[in-house]
Amino acid sequence: MPRLTRASATLLAFAATGLLSPAWAEQMMFHADLTGAAQVPPVDTAATGAADVTVDSDAMTVSWTVTYEGLSGDPVAAHFHGPASPEETAPPVIDISANLAQGSAEITPEQMQMIQDGQTYINIHTEANPDGEIRGQVMAAAQ
């Protein structure tokens, strides 16, 4: 059996702890379909939308791409809200108003957990619907 030198034993110890492996962030993918019917209470609108969301657990960021059409007017605000099930409402936790179409933000461990647990929703607010015109629960994306 080969004899381990102090240097090779140290190298093996570092490898076992993961200190020599590359730091790969876990990229978690989520999706939301945005409709007026998902609002609580439901909103009568022809507007629809979709959001693709990525959480980077190493950088502690969330990024999004949101598309929508048919709103009653220009969006006046947009947020991730939580924690809430699809039947509940909750306060905004991440403001995406300034970069609705595409953006990113730093998140807290609690916000990351809410997203992972399916306890956040994206809500787009308009002047005609200040509580939100279309909404969609952020859920793990189909693989």
UniProtKB/TrEMBL annotation:
InterPro entries with a match to the protein in the record: CHRD
PROSITE patterns: CHRD
Residues annotated as signal peptide: 1-25
Keywords: Signal
The organism's taxonomic lineage, starting at the top: Bacteria, Pseudomonadati, Pseudomonadota, Alphaproteobacteria, Rhodobacterales
Name of the protein: CHRD domain-containing protein
Domain CHRD positions: 26-143
